[in-house]
Sequence to fold (228 residues):
Amino acid sequence: MTAHDIDLEALGRYDTPTICNALLAVAPEAARRSTKATLHCARPELPPMVGFARTTLYRTMEPGDLDAAQEKAQDLEWFDYVAAGPAPRIVVVQDGDTPHAATNALFGEVMSFMHSVLGCNGLITNGAVRDVAGMAEGFQVLCGGIAPNRAGFHRADFDCEVNVAGLYARTDTLIHADVNGAVVVPPDLVPLILEAAAAVTSKEQAIIDFCRDPGVTAESFKRFWREG
Fold:
């Protein structure tokens, strides 16, 4: 299955816990490829994001050793990398300075506009961000924290494997993320995942609807559950 064959819009109609439940039904091992530590959703009003990873490793406790011209050249290489391949894309940034991650912001308002232009719909990082209120429209952010300062950081590597809150990603890893966290989606399983997600949603809605009935009692609920 190619990236163009994947129904990203259909995946985006479900929240991330539902996608995780669907993965548990069709590929339990794959369901473990999710964030394990808490990330903060900086823009909880936005819908789930689905996209292909563009990965980079930052160091945020000290500046790098590149001069201004070298930094500019590296930026241009990064932009070429981010803009290539299937869209939409999600920037996945590991702050490598654990346990001090999320002390200096590595992404903010301007970066959100720049990466939005490059075809990205969001960011997932264990590091810190800032300027959340001014970020590009529709640009979602899951982060390790909020910090005002961007002092002393540099891009140490990109197009590499990263680990963000327990979620491992490489270039073109398909990711589903929302306010609850993020999970890797195996592209070849998307049709089965969508089928399972529909079944999960239907079953859960039946339970919710039953519990909302004003006449429900503990005994009637137990009968419902027993017969279900």
In short: The mean pLDDT is 95. The two ends are 36 Å apart (CA to CA).
